[in-house]
Write a structure and sequence with these properties.
The protein has 3 helices and 6 strands. With about 100 residues, the protein is α+β, with helices and mostly antiparallel strands. Bound molecules: iron/sulfur cluster (SF4). The site of iron/sulfur cluster has 14 residues, from α2.
Length: about 100
């Protein structure tokens, strides 16, 4: 039982990454830093791999804590700050 609880804890998607895709300039920095999460689309902009596409053309994806640092680095590498990360537990907007 204890083990089961731990497994659930480990797979909680604690962070949400959001991509303001309309304002992406397609520099490809995010895809270079975190290619498992960011890919370049043929229209020249990036996409979050496996994301949910919103009506406002933003993209979003919930991620586990173990994938936070890499996506934070991708967000830090974005020259126009269109990658945002929120801690879903605290509501803190990290970037
Ligand atoms: S780093 Fe920013 S501007 Fe560059 S492709 Fe990624 S999201 Fe777009």
């Amino acid at each position: 039982m204890a083990e089961e609880t731990q497994t659930v804890q480990e797979t909680i998607k604690k962070y949400k990454i959001e991509h303001d895709r309309p304002n992406c300039i397609g520099c490809a920095a995010c895809a270079a830093v975190a290619p498992d999460f960011w890919t370049m689309h043929e229209d020249g902009k990036s996409d979050i791999v496996g994301c949910k596409k919103r009506d406002d053309e933003w993209e979003e994806l919930d991620i586990e804590e173990k994938n936070y640092q890499l996506n934070k680095e991708a967000a830090d590498s974005c020259p126009v700050n269109v990658i945002h990360i929120t801690n879903k537990e605290t509501g803190e907007k990290i970037i």
